[in-house]
Design goal:
It is a single chain. The N and C termini lie far apart (about 65 Å). The chain has about 140 residues and is mainly α. It has a two-stranded antiparallel ribbon with strand order 1-2. The chain is built from three helices and two strands. This is TIGR03750 family conjugal transfer protein. It comes from Xanthomonas citri pv. citri. InterPro entries: DUF3487.
């Protein structure tokens, strides 16, 4: 550590900008985003594998389709999410998901003890303007 980075008492004199960010794990996804992408891809692979296993009469098609779905989902989903997240804050993806859920299920997204997301669209006013002619 360079001498200008520490104070006289030996403490670090600066805070790095990206100190509390999650590290990028795979294809631009953080660990949480990777789990969400892999879980959704596995569910899609399971849905594709069920009828295929029934048609081919082979139960091995289900795990095969799940693995292929996860691989394709992480590859494709990682690229798409990386492009969507570029230049946005770290919390953008989670707020976007919360906003879409709040619009789709307005009464089902509020957890006990938390505030609900404001989804009102339109003009806001503070009503501080005075009518003409009044002091």
């Amino acid at each position: 550590m360079a001498p200008q980075d520490t104070a006289r008492d030996g403490l670090v004199a600066f805070l790095p900008h990206r100190l509390n960010r999650q590290p990028v794990v795979v294809r631009g996804l953080t660990a949480d985003e990777l789990w969400v992408c892999a879980g959704l891809s596995a569910a899609a692979g399971l849905l594709a594998g069920l009828p295929l296993a029934w048609i081919t009469r082979s139960i091995a098609m289900m795990p095969t389709m799940i693995v292929l779905g996860v691989a394709a989902g992480v590859f494709v989903g990682g690229g798409l999410l990386r492009r969507k997240k570029r230049g946005r804050p770290d919390i953008w993806l989670y707020r976007q998901m919360q906003w879409r859920l709040a619009l789709r299920f307005p009464h089902g997204t509020g957890r006990p003890g938390t505030h609900r997301l404001v989804t009102r669209s339109g003009y806001w006013t503070t009503r501080r303007t005075r009518p003409r002619g009044r002091p």
